[in-house]
Amino acid sequence: MSNKVEVQTRNIRLTEKIEEYVNKKAGNFDHYLPTIEEVRVELAHHKAARSATDRNVAQITVYGKGFTLRTEERSDEALAAFDLALDNMQRQIERYKGKHQHGRGDGRSAAEVAEAVEPIIDDETGELSPLVARKKKFVLYPMTEEEAVIQMRNLGHDNFFIFYNAETSKVNVLYRRRNGSYGLIEPELG
After folding, report:
1. CATH number of domain containing 179
2. What average pLDDT score do residues 89-113 get?
């Protein structure tokens, strides 16, 4: 076990048995991917969850050089949720390795293969052209979150949809999560 494991709990007493089990299992992630530096495990119990199978939540976040992977699973027991999250994280690590390490099979990294982006100089003005290839303008109509979901489906937008939230009077981004549910981004000026 060489990667650091941090265990946090909410509404659960962290026993020595649980901490030892989590450290043993989560401490092996660097075996799968040596660039992992830290693993954070959060175990939580939500009394108000509708279903008993959703009351215990295990969230695992893996930090490495240049990447962060995160998974969350729910179950009726804390360690069962942790085991589900552990399996999911192992799949994510394998998928990450496949995308970032296996590459093209010739041993070169993506950075070595990628062509450098040459700035484009406008012939008439002699100035650099922006790298934005396309700009699109559209009218934002006020709508609720539910109307935005319906509009997103009707338009066939699979990844995201930008709309003016009539309830908050702000521009929001609705996006589809991997599990099929929707997420909402509410930007604020800093």
Report:
1. 3.30.505.50
2. 70
Cβ distance 144 to 119 under 8 Å?
A: no
Q: Cα(151)–Cα(148) distance, rounded to whole angstroms?
A: 5
Give the pLDDT of residue 174: 93
Give Cα separations from 35 to 4, 38, 108, 180 (angstroms). 12, 9, 18, 30
Long-range pairs, 179-185, Cβ under 8 A, ≥24: 182/149, 184/145
Q: Are 7 and 21 spatial neighbours (Cβ–Cβ below 8 Å)?
A: no
Q: What confidence category does residue 172 fall into, taking pLDDT thresholds of 50, 70 and 90?
A: very high
Using DSSP's 3-state secondary structure scheme, residue 16 falls into: helix
Residues 10 and 98 placed together within one structural domain of the fold: yes
